[in-house]
Amino acid sequence: MCGRIIQTDFRKNYARKIGWDVSYAPAWVGGDSIPQYNICPGAPIRIMDMRGSRPRVTDLRWGYCTPKEIEEKRKPWINARIEKALTGRYFRHMFRSGRVIVPSEGWYEWTVENGKKQPWFITRIVDEPVFMAALTNWIEWNHYMPHQTVETGVVIVTADAEGGMVDVHDRRPVVLEPEDARIWMDPETPVEEAAHIAQASSLPTEAFMWWRVDRAVNRYEQYKNGKHLLAPIQ
């Protein structure tokens, strides 16, 4: 699973690090907000997309509900299992036409210790972005920050965790290297190839490190989410 993420870099840097040409400085590179160290589902998150005339970085709500689920007041989906994303009724339309990337520096997971939820922060061992495979049903790109409803959003693709990461959580985001991330996003990439990339090319457990962090992470405060939240604790 992936229940909270961080996004602390500039849009232009995410674009550059994934291998896009940023020399022309398009408008979508601007509008950076303060670094976010504790983003919750339901909040806007940055996504990277290649479905227009040029690649772009923009914001979209994290979470998705079908109209029926909205009527039933169910919680939005925030993750999509790769095993079901291609064929499952909820996400197959997104898999075919809405593959995007969520750039990040890491994410949080929780264990239960002494009856309390203990947060852990997970990030790459090398100082490189975490490019998470994601899906969206947002097809009409009208403005930088379009009007959105809970029927329009983004979900992060997950796979089974392996190795020591299983001790933190049995699911984890599908994280891709820049080249694979670009292929994943490319609308010309056949769905079978995209599925193979997500299932076979996700970075292995050995590419990550993780540590306990303060339970202050559990209390989401939009404007009080500084870098101190990442500090390791015993």
What does this structure look like?
- With 234 residues, this protein is of the alpha+beta class.
- The chain has one domain (4-230): hypothetical protein yedk fold (Alpha-Beta Complex), CATH 3.90.1680.
- The protein is 18% helix and 30% strand.
- It contains six helices and 13 strands.
- It has helices at residues 11-18, 67-71, 82-85, 92-97, 178-185, 191-200; strands spanning 4-7, 36-39, 44-49, 56-61, 79-81, 99-104, 106-113, 116-124, 130-136, 154-160, 171-173, 175-176, 208-212.
- The strands form three sheets. Strands 5, 6, 9, 10, 11 and 12 form a six-stranded mixed β-sheet that branches.
- Strand 7 (106-113) and strand 8 form a beta hairpin.
- Helix 5 (178-185) runs antiparallel to helix 6.
- The longest helix has 10 residues, at 191-200.
- The model is unreliable at 140-148 (pLDDT under 50).
Summed up, what is this model?
By secondary structure, the chain is of the alpha+beta class. The chain is 18% helix and 30% strand. The protein has helices at residues 11-18, 67-71, 82-85, 92-97, 178-185, 191-200, and strands at 4-7, 36-39, 44-49, 56-61, 79-81, 99-104, 106-113, 116-124, 130-136, 154-160, 171-173, 175-176, 208-212.
